[in-house]
Each structure stands twice: as structure tokens, then as C-alpha cells.
Amino acid sequence: MPFVFAFFVVLVLFATLVLARTIRIVPQARAGIVERFGKYRATLQPGLNIVTPFVDRVRYVIDMREQVVSFPPQPVITEDNLVVSIDTVIYFQVTDPVAATYEIANYIQAIEQLTMTTLRNIVGGMDLEQTLTSREDINRGLSSVLDEATGRWGVRVGRVEIKGIDPPPSIKDSMEKQMRADRDKRAAILTAEGQRQSAILTAEGNKQAAILNAEGNREAVILRAQADRESAILRAQGEGQAIQTVFQAIHDGQPDQALLAYQYLQMMPKIAEGDANKVWVVPSEITKALEGLGSAVHEVSGIPKHTGGPRTRVDMGSMERVEVGGSDPSLSKAHQDVKDAIAAAEASAAGGPISTPTADAPSSDAPDAAPPAAGPPSAG
């Protein structure tokens, strides 16, 4: 009985081992390489697969997805004998798992070494400036060489990227200084061009402003001269018309000696009204002053002492003809005062006594004549 139980246990274990060796599960995007007695037999696809136990063996499981490998910086010498460090990134995918297993021992290491040698060949024909500015050319050259070499390994290189190109520290410092000097030069050039453009525009603006100011001054002078000319013409015409009007009014009014004496007496208070006249001396002998006045008035040639007939008073507002000596008592009184003053001056000159006439009683020495014109004094 114990022997039977032990045999049964051994049989179950053997069946389990055989089943485990027979059924193989391959994950998605993987491929299994099966060998029989050390020789390639088949490639297992993703999923459940059955192999011959103890005869077939799954040696490799190859990842069929696209993979990314970053290689460490590699020193590369340029054409101008400068050592630069270049980092590369390779994107590849296994297309033939059998070739990737049996054509190359380690395809990742092979790709790395091939990348290094190809990169040195490409960069060795470029100087530092071209190396730094020709990354696309380096990528295309690497991709073409690697894709052609790795095709027989069952590997397809999809993309090659240059992560970084690091020149030596001294070269970096020199490049920074050169770049700084170049930018300073461009900044100085742009500043000079800006100042030149500004000066040109400022000069053009000043020129245009000067031209416009000159034109404006010329037009202003012309207009001012025309205005002065028209003003002088109008002023002369006004003065001429005023003189003609006054002259015509004087002739129409027919003035006599009494009117001129009255005008002279009216001007005497105005002499004292000026601000510059601080002191005004009144003559002590008023009779001699009146005598001189009377003699001066009598000596004016061409003006009659008395005129006969009615007089015409010039009124610029209504131009009405008014007979003097009629209805205006104030004008008659003023005219009578003038006649009394003239009579007193004549009597004083003759050596007679000076009478003091009043407004109500006219002097008997006043000559009998027609009433003189009592209109407003003309502005002669």
C-alpha cells in the first residue's frame, strides 16, 4: 500500500513536469526561439504554445517592440583637431527574431560600436562650426549607415538623434566671447543705423518746419502789408471825407468873428486839463488878455465880423436846418456872453471903463448885427 501511494505521487509529479514543459505562454509583442537538441526548430508566437517536452527548449524570448537606447558621451575629433563629446540616442526595433538571435551575439552592443565608428567618420570631415550647426546632417548619415548594417541582423534602426555636442571648456569660453563680441558688434551697428535714421528724419523734419515757417512768415508779411495798405487807404479816405464834411459844414454855417472868439475861449479850460500841466498861471490883467484876443480876432483876414441873413446849423444826425436865435435860450445866452466879452475887450482897448454886463441886460457897446450862428463848434 505505501508503495502504491508513492508511485502515484511520483506519477503526478512527472505529469505536472511534462505538462509544464509542454505548454509555453508567450506575452504579446514577444517572440520565442525554440531549439531542439541545440538547433533552431521554430518561433513561438504570442499566446499559448505547445512544445515537445524534454526535446524542445525555448532559448530566447525576443522583445518585438521599438526600443530606445541612449549611449554615453563619446569623444570625437573634428577636422580642425578639436575633441568634442557627442551623446546619441538610437530608436530601433527587432524585425527578425531568428536573425537577431543567430546573426549577432549582442545586437545592442553592436549598434553602439557601429554608431561610434560611423559618428567619428562623419564628424571627422567637419570642423567645429559645422559640427555644431549640422545635427540634421549627422542624424541622416548615422541613420542610413546603421539601417544598412543592422538589416542583416534583423534589426531596423528607425531614428538616430544627437542629444548633445559638448566642446572643451576653453572652446566654450572662446565661443561665448566670440558670440558676445558678434552680438555687441551687431548691437553697435543697429544703434548707429538707428541714430543715423533718427538724425536724417530730424534734419528732414527741421527742414520741412523751416520751409513751412518761412512760407507762413512770408504769407503773414504779405497779408499784414495788404492789411496796412487797406487800413491806410480807408483811414485816408475817412480823413478826407471827415475834412470835406467839416469844411462843408463850416462853409454852410457861415462863421463870423464872434464864433471864432467863442471857440478860442472854450479851448482855454482844456489847456489846464492835461496831466503834465502841474501849474497853470492865470494872467492878472484879464482885460489885456481880452484886448489881445479881440485884436487877434479882428486881424483874421477873410472872415467877416458880422454876417447878415439867417444862418444854418449843421447837425450830422438829422441834417435839419434851424434858424438861430429862435427857440433855444441856452445857445442865445452863450452867444450873448461872447458878445459882451468882446465888447468889454474893445472898450478896454479904447481906454473906456469896463462895464459888467449881465445875461439879462446886454451891453450897449455890442455892435448891432444879426444873431450869429450858435451851433456846436466844429471840429476844425
From TrEMBL:
<dbReference type="Pfam" id="PF01145">
    <property type="entry name" value="Band_7"/>
</dbReference>
<feature type="compositionally biased region" description="Pro residues">
    <location>
        <begin position="369"/>
        <end position="380"/>
    </location>
</feature>
<keyword id="KW-0812">Transmembrane</keyword>
<feature type="region of interest" description="Disordered">
    <location>
        <begin position="322"/>
        <end position="380"/>
    </location>
</feature>
<dbReference type="GO" id="GO:0098552">
    <property type="term" value="C:side of membrane"/>
</dbReference>
<dbReference type="InterPro" id="IPR050710">
    <property type="entry name" value="Band7/mec-2_domain"/>
</dbReference>
<protein>
    <submittedName>
        <fullName>SPFH/Band 7/PHB domain protein</fullName>
    </submittedName>
</protein>
<feature type="domain" description="Band 7">
    <location>
        <begin position="21"/>
        <end position="179"/>
    </location>
</feature>
<dbReference type="GO" id="GO:0005886">
    <property type="term" value="C:plasma membrane"/>
</dbReference>
<feature type="compositionally biased region" description="Low complexity">
    <location>
        <begin position="341"/>
        <end position="368"/>
    </location>
</feature>
<dbReference type="InterPro" id="IPR001107">
    <property type="entry name" value="Band_7"/>
</dbReference>
<comment type="similarity">
    <text>Belongs to the band 7/mec-2 family.</text>
</comment>
<keyword id="KW-0472">Membrane</keyword>
<dbReference type="InterPro" id="IPR036013">
    <property type="entry name" value="Band_7/SPFH_dom_sf"/>
</dbReference>
<keyword id="KW-1133">Transmembrane helix</keyword>
<dbReference type="InterPro" id="IPR001972">
    <property type="entry name" value="Stomatin_HflK_fam"/>
</dbReference>
<dbReference type="InterPro" id="IPR018080">
    <property type="entry name" value="Band_7/stomatin-like_CS"/>
</dbReference>
